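Morning!

As promised:
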Amino acid sequence: MTGVQRTVTRTLVVLLAMFVFAFALVPLYDAFCRVTGINGKVENTAQALIRDSIDESRVITVQFITRGSAGLPWKLEVLNRQVRVHPGAATEVHFAFTNHGKEAGWGRAVPSVSPSEASLYMRKVTCFCFQEQRLDAGERYEAPLVFQLTRDLPDDIQTVTLVYTLYPVDDKTLAAKALANEARIIAVPRIAVPGGEA
Amino acid sequence: MAPKLPPRLPPQHPLEQAGEAAGPAGHAEAGYHHGPKGLLRWLLTTNHKEIGTLYLIFSLSMFFIGGIFALVVRAELFQPGLQLVQPEFFNQMTTMHGLIMVFGAVMPGFVGLANWMIPLQIGAPDMALPRLNNFSFWLLPVAFTLLLSTLLMPGGGPNFGWTFYAPLSTTYSPPSTTFFILSLHMAGISSILGAINIIATILNLRAPGMRMMDMPLFVWTWLITAFLLIAVMPVLAGVITMMLLDINFGTSFFNAAGGGDPVMFQHIFWFFGHPEVYIMILPAFGIVSAIIPTFARKRLFGYASMVYATSSIAILSFLVWAHHMFAVGLPLVAELFFMYTTMLIAVPTGVKVFNWIATLFQGSISFETPMLFALAFVVLFSIGGFSGLMLAIAPADFQYHDTYFVVAHFHYVLVPGAVFAIMAAVYYWLPKWTGHYPNERLGRWHFWTSVVGVNLTFFPMHFSGLAGMPRRIPDYALQFADFNMASSIGALLFGTSQLLFVWMIIKCVRGGEKAPAKAWDGAEDLEWTVPSPAPLHTFETPPRFQHQEH
Amino acid sequence: MRKLPGGVAAIGGGVWLTFSALAHGWNMPLGVTALSRDIHGLHMTIFWICVVIGVVVFGVMFYSLFRYRRSKGAQASLFHENTKVEVIWTTVPLLILIGMALPATATLKQMYDAKDADLDVMVTGQQWRWHYEYLGEDVAFTSNLATPRDQIDGAAAKGENYLLEVDEPLVLPVGRKVRFLLTSDDVVHSWWVPDLAVKQDAIPGFVNENWVRIETPGTYRGQCTELCGRNHGFMPVVVEAMEPDAFDSWLAERQQAAAREASGVDREWAMDELMSRGQQVYESICASCHQVDGSGNPPVFPALANNPALMAERDRHIATVINGVAGKPMPAFSSSLSPVEIAAVITYERNAWGNDTGDSVQPSEIQARLE
């Protein structure tokens, strides 16, 4: 039966590898999206500006859209709904978070770029979307976004739309993230324990 | 080359008779059953034939349960308006119909045929891992009892379609979803264990002298299918585990709120899902490749190209998954890539159909029931292939996607495709299993009512889809009424005609015209060298296989 | 044998059915955009290719079945291989496919070219309605199924546009390029209008793009095509295409109406005023889940009638309507209803069906909560 045993061992190895592969698909997919621009995913960590000359021959319209979502009595507003930028130039745009609710809470603005290919050329130097935000009841908090469209932005992209959807972050998610050892949560200033001040 | 002989020659066996020296007497002796009797015997059996029978009975019962769910759907859709069920229950019915048919009826049906026939076709005494075989079968009734019981749980059973797209199946799912995941895990483990067993059997237990390129195509297609299973069932397990974590442990694999991505669910699901589609059709190709030569009394045309075509379909199946997702907003390059690879699949699939037709050409054809089903398979599967080719054209797919056109397409591939192939196989091998020929008259009735029923059900769906009817809706606009009524009548006809199938099987088990070892005069594979009915133990002494010169 | 006449009759019947159905308009619509006509052309081309291949292949098959019947004494040949034939029937389909891929690629490239749009519309899917926002124009509204429940339940005769009618259609100008940005508030939806050949998934947290340039004024109907839960089948899309001038005046009128609505926040509203406005809002938006009589559909959709717990908590009631409930089909209505509508509908819910709390909620109170 050694033949059978060998076959079984080999298939089990393949099996295990495929199971691991299924989970590896998550980071692989993320990486793949960032490389190819699928889904308009952008880097969720700060990137350095590329010191590049500014392409003044082209003007790109960048639109900002903010959306709320169920379960979070917050509002996210953009103070300049649309800017016109030259590729290569760094631009600052201001956003404001307001907590209309009566409790402190956690929220996170999730970005998405359209057309999705444009996400490849969008470099964010500073963004409130890199981390969870905590707001006290009634608190208003202004946050900047500093971004740059790189010069290699294809000519057929003339409008870039950035949509931020504000989502509540619940304790379970915070706990899961903490478990996953995502130190970013702890790195957010002004907090001790999630929901502690409520 | 497969041991197909030129027809109309004196019977001359590829086996050396010495290997079968014991003859019928030896088999009668071997047919004696030792061990527990009654229910316990079936619970503990490790015999490939008994386990094969169990799989087939299970598959048939699931076929009826899934069929009843389909009839509930079709009854509600008989005319516009909500008459019988509410949308919540309707969604559970469409979901359960899909899950049961895919994981409970078609896959176990093929595994049952594999259990019965692979050892007989390669001259092995049993499967390589008989006890594992028993375990992998008994996981299934447990899994599906659990799955069906979710219908009775508060909030109802799964209601998010058999493709269970997140976040409808995670954040917005009924509480029973955790049990759905558990049952799918069990069904998945069962498939994986079955696949390991099949691979181990085929690679190690072939009769001395039988090379890979001598194996019957059913064995070949199953070997490739088993590799597909090994490759993608763990991916299914992975994706449902992620769902489980998202639902119960606060992770955000698919939840945009936590930084996850619902589209990633679809990518991982279809990375499993597309090969899964071929898992459900490759063994059917093997069955048809056995039946057509038998009843055309002519060797299969292009055996080697059949093997290569099957392998290329299997490999391509890993490169086409996103054609299910043309409307999710893929970048242009991805759309183009998946459109081209999908169109490419038509080539090896076409080769198979051409080979079958070339086998028929200048044959000596007779039309017993297995042949009728196999021929209907060729025609109707091709129609499903044509609509598949249309769906591959990405710009047009924006119009076809998620409409009844898609429902028509995949039902043509799966019902007169996979299901007809299983039925053809049952008619073809029943003489070997029971020792009696199936009743030809009943078989014909079953065949014709099924063919009319299937086409009446699914053909009009092409038009309702093109005219704009989305899938998975419990009620529809008035212009879709006529075609839906036709589909519902067809479904009722197809459903009830399956009672003829059951009746035919019962009759055949109980009696009927006695079948000799070689039940069909054109059949040439090894299974026809053992007596009919096949005794419990066969090929305990491996036969010596004499491969045929090209 | 019997297979032959039966099979030929079946295939003949299928072919006849196909052509008569296609001739009677049971086909993909030609549509009202240049792209929809291109797509229709691709569809018909690939269809005819399939028909021709089918006729040839099935022709040979049925010829063989007829000609080589054993009952007529056919003797089987011995051939079982022919490399030349195999090469031919591998390469010929490949060439046909390449011929098909070229126009498909060209059309696809056009579909992806959303630049230079004259108007941007944000389309948001919600369980189970569509929300439209004309970006930069300060016009936004929700579009709900308008078919009365009676028609669905069979208590009333079904109207001409049964299940394909909405209270407020999406109004678009003809001749201008309109870019859609699609997203969702909850699960995946898909926005489809066959005549515009636009079908695009609306995915929570992500935006998709598509575009259209309509050529002919008219009303075009479609539906949500991605299973999105209970009322997936009751989520129609209606687009009304107007001449640009008519569209501009429609837009201006909507902007004025929005301004009027906004000014309504500042004044005190009478109870019966709130109740009648509230009933209107409730029946078009809330009733699809919470039912016209407020009985809801527990456990997913709580009852609003006979719900003393909710009536005791005015504050929670207001907060739930404004902010929605995470992970439940209850959306945050602050993004799709005006303060007046929110105030009216809460007032209605707190006084209808015997709730009789006597509470009135003023638009100014809602406005204050949103600032």
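The longest strand of chain C covers residues 119-126.

Hope this helps with the figure draft.
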